[in-house]
Amino acid sequence: MSYDDNVIDRIAGVAPGSALYDLRGEREEILRLSETSHRASLSPRDPGQLSPALRAALAARMARLLKDAAGAAHYDALLARAAPDAPIAALADPGHAPDDPRLAEIIRRVDLLTLTPEAATREDVERLRAAGLEDPSIVTLTGLVAFVNYQLRVAAGLRMLKGAAPR
Amino acid sequence: MSDAVHEFTLSAVDWRPYVEPVVLEEASPEQLDALKTTPSNKGISAYALTLALDPEMLAERTPLFNDIMYAPGGLSRAERELGSLAASVMNRCVYCAYVHATRFIQLDKRPEVVEAIYRDGAQARLDERDQAILDVSVKLTRAPDTVGSANRDRLRAVGLSDLEILDLVHAVSIFGWANRLMHTLGEPFAKTP
Known about the structure:
The complex is a heterodimer of chains A (about 170) and B (about 190).
Chain A: H1 7-12, H2 19-25, H3 28-42, H4 52-65, H5 69-81, H6 86-89, H7 101-115, H8 122-130, H9 135-162
Chain B: E1 13-17, H1 29-35, H2 46-51, H3 55-70, H4 77-90, H5 94-108, H6 111-120, H7 128-142, H8 149-157, H9 162-185, E2 186-190
């Protein structure tokens, strides 16, 4: 993996050669493992019940929920490369509510865990099971949401360090 | 279940999943590798066995978590725990808060800081440096688009270096991850003495 092309720094707009770029280099192992976690979450060797296109669409949705335009652009590009079917591509828009009951439950979890994780209960997991998700897929979906929420917070923190004004 | 704990606590709690975790004796080589263990090891937590349902993610996540919390230099161990505690309280991960409140007190010897955050959450009143850390941790947890140069300037003003600020960002963000696993995939329960 190239140190010069990692997703978080691209989303945050960290320029090579800048003071922040050098600071990031002091935590290079975190940078590296954040990137391998991105791969494990978005483009895994074994996608199981959750296709790479679905994962990218959900990540783009989360970026919009968190008002991160650069993050949304990154995940939109990843989604486009995965050649999604229309019902999957539509999920990238937080205003879209899918008809498919399984996708609707997946979206419900993505939105709940991104915006109000404190409200999650056992019943939310039972709903996913009832919609046909196997336990490993429930852990994977939860892990994907958790990772993207991590990544976009690091990016927001890097923008803060750059001196960007909040939106 | 009746012994589930849903209020912030400093009394010993354990954690159990809502899903069926990996059974160690039946784990695949990839799961064992992600757990960095062998079937003879009985000390694996229910949490790790739950995350091992996705071994590819777990294998990257464990060393990342450890590096963020323990890498030498930069922000003190106690102040990393403070950022993690603030995130965990905002996200109501009672188990995470218990673990990191306990570690903060072990390292920093000021239980009153934990008491204030447990009691008042984002409105807790702390000394100047702790307050700057709490405030940015709350904003980054709740609405990352709202943090900006004013937060950075305040952290610098109370004496944090930019490496310390970066370490704080990582410590809060990794709990944006950990809380979303632990609080949503299971629940804490009181440990029997």
